[in-house]
Amino acid sequence: MDFGPHLLLAILEGAVGAAVLALTALGLSLVFGVMRVVNVAHGEFFMLGAVVAWFIASPIAGHPAIGFVAALALAPLVAGAIAVVVDRFVLKEVEYDPEATIVGTIGVLYIIQQSALMIYGPEARPVEPPFNHRIALPWFEWGETGLEFYYPWGLSTTSYKLFVIVAAIGILLAFWVIMSRTRLGLIMRATQLDRETALAFGIPVQRVYSIVFGFGAALAALAAVLIVPIQQAHYLMGHDPLLLSFIVVIIGGLGSVRGTVVAALLIGMSDGIISVFLSPTLSKILATLLVALVLVFRPQGLYGKKMA
Amino acid sequence: MSKLPKTSRRSLIKSVGAGALLASSPLVGRFASAQSGAPIKIGFQQHSTGIGAAYGRWYGRTTEAAVKAINDAGGINGRPVEIVAEDDGTDPKRGAEVVEKFANQHNCDVAFGTLFSHVVIGSAPSAGEQKIPYFVVSEGHHVASGGLNRYTLQPGITDVKSQVQAMAPYVADNLGKKVTMIFPDFAFGHDHRDFFTAAIEAQGGEVLEHIAVPPSETSFTKYFPKIPRDTEVLYHVMVGPAVLTFVKELGEFFGPSSPAIFGFIDSLEAVDLASPGLEFLEGTYFWEGNPRYAQADQTSHDKNFRAAVGVDENGASVSDPKDVSTYAHMFGCWETLHIIKAGMEASGYQGPADRQKLIEAVEAMTDMPESDAHPQGPKVFNGKTHQVFGVQYISRVENGRLVKVHTTSIEDTLYPDETDYTTQSF
Predict the structure, then answer these.
(1) Which chain B residues touch A281 with a CB distance below 8 Å?
(2) Whether B143 and B167 share a structural domain
(3) How many angstroms away from the CA of A241 is the closest CA of chain B?
(4) In terms of CB atoms within 10 Å, which of B80, B166, B299, B365 comes out highest?
(5) Within 10 Å of residue B131's Cβ, how many Cβ atoms?
(6) Are B151 and B175 in a shared domain?
């Protein structure tokens, strides 16, 4: 494949990865920012979203869009509800102690993963996309008659992949509006800034924590519902998103929404482009190397605030 | 120890009386040679979880069916067969532990059933240390290459080297000579890479590009631009939970202008051919170890095998038409268990002390005619390399079904011996 079409394909693939990664990492970043909890089970909430989407979509007959929309609405709610239960019965019990919550969420990781294995089984199962058309993309070159358009072999995407990118941008904007323009966002930001003062001003911090933890899990689940028609629901699928989300959150700055989105774009796009042109292993190596460099030279992350 | 006299009396009966009966009539021989009612325990190393889970599920069902068939016919040497299944998570380290558990904790007579080549390679040294016969159903060339040991045998399924060698002439003659290969990046895929490349070159063809994909990969479009424009045949083989994504994205990548496509059915094992997005496979070719769809010339053996395992004529579970089997591979479990039975009966196997005799009995096997015990087709076992050879099938997708278009001979699959395990001491 020529360089130009090849690069365009790489960017498209990278954009799909970046879109899903941004949503997943945002959930992780939100939970850390507000609650100071490093949620190791975050990838499992991602997996829950995909698995629940399969349970919801597969028995619904008729047009695949009906099942998909139902999954899009319900799967994040289910994952969020489970997260709220985890918050009440695990995180609250250890009083949100940073070390204890890490160990606690590792336990939650295995409980969710093995429960999925027992209930859903070890198979990878597909959810049908609501629509999926192959879109061949044109490329241009200077020919004898000036600018010529042609359709290179393999340069294509699907309507559903474009939808994932657009939907992710929409969800990110909605998230930004919630955080900056609503009372709920104000309360979350207040809790993030100073827990004690927020409590003194009558903010029900415990309830905010539950909402934030559920909200974070729901974001991961939402990302998974978007990706599951492209990939398939599998009980081990939470591993990679967790790792990449941590990479994104460390590079972007823990708790920084802007940093998370920028880092997700950086990691997602570079993963797409490097793995297309060079090798997928190299892109993982470079991402990890970037984390190491950030930790050494800018420990607070690209957009994080320095801890006093 | 009080049982010793009893044992020797029965041994006497066996050696004097039952020997002739055993040879003339296996059924009578079995009852005459019965030593005790204690079951023969076969450790089944099952990929219940991990990337091999779909195969593990169907290997399990086939194994259950084979054991039922064997027990209904009187068991082995008059004793019932019992399966001890352990999940290895499709993981080599766990696999080695499972083999040790079979030998030490469960007191199994033999270990059996491993598919994924990296698990076989990881587990075989344990089988050698524990001196437990290890019957793998893996397709990898690692047994015949001499890389393993005398305790590891593959008598129920052919290896990749012989499969691809038999495919290359058909591909070169009917599809094209410039091939690009996509394969999983571990031992099994490397067997495909090495042996198909050599085989197609022997046919005057060439491989333009080798594209290795990690078996845990979930997104594949990024690999496809490496397919050179002048590719005439795309050769694909993939494994793992994301095979459906792999094939779908392959179709989306090529759209209407694809080269000829030849795949190993591994890329679609346990996947419904009618899944949305797979329409582009119409007219493409697949290697099949055993044809998934019941063919026009279906044998009574294949019919019986399907009925015993619970598979319909489309290769799916009779209870759930969406639960598609790993039909091209799972016959290997059925055939291997019947070979264990034949080997134990030929050697008069009584317990773990007779394990060497069992291996020698299997090594002595040669022709295995097509029968209810060998429903996939006739086979020839090579006792020196511990590897079986048999016919291979090529199918074409026609109206959403795989229709058999070519059957190789066993001779097409033979290659010179690379090792002689019988010279190794036990």
Answers:
(1) 214
(2) no
(3) 12
(4) B166
(5) 15
(6) no
Same domain flag for B90 and B192: no
Counting one residue from chain A and one from chain B, the pairs whose CB atoms sit within 8 A come to 75
Question: Is B415 part of a structural domain of the chain?
Answer: no
- Helix locations, B131-242, DSSP H: 160-174, 187-202
In a domain, B306, yes or no: no
Does residue A137 contact residue A157 with C-beta atoms inside 8 Å? Answer: yes
The domain that holds B269 is classified in CATH as 3.40.50.2300
**CA of A5: which chain B residue's CA is closest?**
B225
Query: Is A136 close to B255, i.e. CB distance below 8 A?
Result: yes
Whole-complex ipTM: 0.82
Kindly list the strands in the beta sheet with B233-236, ordered across the sheet, starting from the edge strand earlier in the chain: B206-213, B178-184, B233-236, B260-264, B285-288, B393-398, B401-407
8 Å CB contact of A230 and B219: yes
Domain span including residue B217: 160-288
SS3 per-residue string spanning A214-237: HHHHHHHHHHHHHHCCCCCECCCC
Residue B212 belongs to a domain? yes
DSSP for B13-38 reads: HIIIIIHHHHHH-HHHHHHHT---SP
- For residues B244 and B260, membership in a common domain is answered with yes
Compute the residue count for chain B: 426
Type of residue at B76: I
State the burial class of residue A252 (Cβ atoms within 10 Å of its Cβ: 0-12, 13-18, 19+): buried
Domain count, chain B: 2
**Together in a domain, B154 and B167:** no
Residue A241 and residue A46 in contact, taking contact as beta carbons nearer than 8 Å = yes
Query: Which ranges in B203-299 belong to alpha helices (H)?
Result: 243-254
Beta bridge partners, B287, equal B264, B394
Contacts of A272 in chain B (CB under 8 A): 222
- The answer as to whether B240 is a domain residue is yes
Residue B311 forms beta bridges with which residues?
B317
pLDDT values of chain A reduced to their tens digit, one per residue, 308 residues: 678 888 888 888 889 999 999 999 999 999 988 888 889 999 999 999 999 999 999 888 888 899 999 999 999 999 999 999 999 999 999 988 989 999 999 999 999 999 998 898 888 888 889 988 888 888 877 777 777 777 777 788 889 999 999 999 999 999 999 988 999 999 988 888 888 888 888 888 899 999 999 999 999 999 999 999 998 898 889 988 999 999 999 888 877 788 899 999 988 888 878 877 777 778 888 888 888 898 888 888 887 765 54
Residues B256 and B191 in one domain: yes
Task: From chain B, pick out residues whose CB is under 8 angstroms from the CB of A10.
Answer: 222, 225
Backbone angles phi, psi at B38, to 5 degrees: -60, 135
Name the pTM for this structure.
0.83
**CA pair distance B385, B335, nearest whole angstrom:** 18
Interface of A with B (CB under 8 A): 1, 6, 9-10, 13, 17, 117, 121-124, 126, 128, 132, 134, 136, 153-154, 156, 158, 230-232, 234, 236-237, 240, 272, 275-276, 280-281
In chain A, what are the domain boundaries? 15-236
